[in-house]
């Protein structure tokens, strides 16, 4: 437990998130609840959560260029470092938390038995990675930039280049899955999934800028992507649960 | 002008998409061996104290169709109501499970130990329950809910008692179908829509 693990979770600001129902993202139409969410103060069921240790990680887990072949042969594509920090809403780092990513290859093809797009698989690319943030909440992945791809939504919809992120935080109520987009990608403005986020300034927080400070000359470019999880309310008198 | 708050805003959610299993359950995606060890394969190890139970069900959309691409996660206390990591918790219970709807049938199974009652604030006890979180293509923000049990005393549970329409309480209660067997469906929309939570 870190020193931020006190008090109830700060209620989720639902205005910052997509609504469940969005007619332009067609699959959301039958998969969105019609009734309102039931809200209440968090309990230990949401304030605790699974923790994962570094012993979980394999040598290549955060290197998607090399992990599918265990270091034998690199994936094809634009070599990039994706890095950033996981923070909470109070601006504190979230250390020792699991970050998982998955993505398509440079041609926009996923290594999943259900993906039938005719862009070929890269025999040297799997498309998943994971790491655990350090004591400052910092993480990094080496990967290749994923390609855009078409999807059966409206007649001519294409996903922008993106990397899926899954973050745990320190409590089950902080659980978050989102997507990282790339600065300057013109498809972001045409994507119904990106557009489920109604506040443009919030969508902009999913767009990672090019970061020359972390690029390695003659090797890889870098993109910076910080993630903010729900924080916990800290008070002088409320940080102990009755009966705990 | 007022002062500026120094709080940050939570990163907005996006759907997990149809291929969430690549990153979270590589073996299910057809990519066995991507990791030496996948997480959440079981919430219990051999020797877990308490009653071992199996909960089976489906995640059903507004047309009545079971999702074939949903991923679920669960989090719970041990049989004595202690969360993993707390003092005295059962070391054979890690409490976390990741499971998916079957790609052909849409059915899921959660095998775990039946949790004990856990406290809320103010000394109130919550009836035994398992917290669940559901993500899939078409779900923009992961849906939180809970599984309670019909053979437990749920009458004083603070969350269930907050549900104004008492006929909706049933949507959070797993039905006993046999010894150690329960049925629980997640209904995303429509008749008998599951109560989803914002906590």
UniProtKB/TrEMBL annotation, chain A:
One Pfam family recorded for the sequence: Dioxygenase_C
SUPFAM superfamilies per record: Aromatic compound dioxygenase (SSF49482)
Keywords, in A-Z order: Dioxygenase, Oxidoreductase
PROSITE patterns for the chain: INTRADIOL_DIOXYGENAS
Start and end residues of each Intradiol ring-cleavage dioxygenases domain: 82-110
GO MF, any single term: ferric iron binding
Keyword tRNA processing found: no
Family: Belongs to the intradiol ring-cleavage dioxygenase family.
Identification of the protein by name: Protocatechuate 3,4-dioxygenase
From TrEMBL, chain B:
CDD domains: 3_4-PCD_alpha
Any single Pfam family the record assigns to this protein: Dioxygenase_C
Source superkingdom: Bacteria
UniProt keyword annotations, A-Z: Dioxygenase, Oxidoreductase
GO molecular function, one term: protocatechuate 3,4-dioxygenase activity
Family: Belongs to the intradiol ring-cleavage dioxygenase family.
The protein's name: Protocatechuate 3,4-dioxygenase
Annotated source species: Pseudooceanicola atlanticus
């Amino acid at each position: 437990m870190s020193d931020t693990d006190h008090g109830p979770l700060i209620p989720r600001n639902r205005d910052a998130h997509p609504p469940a129902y969005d007619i332009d993202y067609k699959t959301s139409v039958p998969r969105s609840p019609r009734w309102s969410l039931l809200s209440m103060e968090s309990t230990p069921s949401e304030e605790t959560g699974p923790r994962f240790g570094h012993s979980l990680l394999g040598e290549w887990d955060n290197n998607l260029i090399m992990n599918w072949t265990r270091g034998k042969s690199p994936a094809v594509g634009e070599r990039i470092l994706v890095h950033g920090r996981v923070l909470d809403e109070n601006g504190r780092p979230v250390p020792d938390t699991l970050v998982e990513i998955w993505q398509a290859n440079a041609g926009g093809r996923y290594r999943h038995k259900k993906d039938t797009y005719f862009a070929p698989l890269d025999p040297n690319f799997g498309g998943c990675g994971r790491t655990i943030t350090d004591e400052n909440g910092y993480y990094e992945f080496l990967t290749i930039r994923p390609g855009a791809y078409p999807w059966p939504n409206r007649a001519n919809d294409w996903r922008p280049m993106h990397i899926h992120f899954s973050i745990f935080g320190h409590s089950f109520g902080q659980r978050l899955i989102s997507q990282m987009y790339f600065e300057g990608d013109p498809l972001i403005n045409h994507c119904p999934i990106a557009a489920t986020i109604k506040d443009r300034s919030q969508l902009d927080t999913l767009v990672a800028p090019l970061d020359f400070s972390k690029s390695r000359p003659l090797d890889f470019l870098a993109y910076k992507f910080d993630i903010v999880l729900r924080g916990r309310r800290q008070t002088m008198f409320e940080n102990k649960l009755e009966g705990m | 002008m007022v002062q500026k708050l120094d709080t940050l805003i939570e990163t907005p959610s996006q759907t997990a998409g149809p291929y969430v299993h690549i990153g979270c359950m590589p073996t299910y995606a057809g990519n066995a061996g991507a990791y030496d060890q996948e997480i959440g394969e079981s919430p219990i190890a051999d020797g877990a104290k308490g009653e071992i139970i199996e909960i089976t069900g489906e995640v059903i959309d507004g047309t009545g169709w079971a999702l074939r691409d949903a991923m679920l996660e669960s989090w719970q206390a041990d049989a004595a109501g202690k969360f993993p990591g707390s003092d005295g918790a059962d070391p054979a219970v890690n409490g976390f499970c990741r499971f998916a709807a079957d790609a052909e049938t849409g059915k899921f199974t959660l095998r775990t130990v039946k949790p004990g009652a856990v406290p809320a604030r103010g000394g109130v006890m919550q009836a035994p329950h398992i917290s669940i979180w559901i993500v899939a293509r078409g779900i923009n923000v992961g849906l939180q809910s809970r599984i309670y049990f019909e053979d437990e005393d749920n009458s004083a549970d603070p969350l269930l008692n907050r549900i104004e329409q008492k006929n909706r309480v049933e949507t959070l209660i797993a039905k006993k179908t046999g010894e150690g067997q329960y049925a629980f469906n997640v209904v995303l929309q429509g008749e008998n829509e599951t109560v989803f939570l914002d906590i």
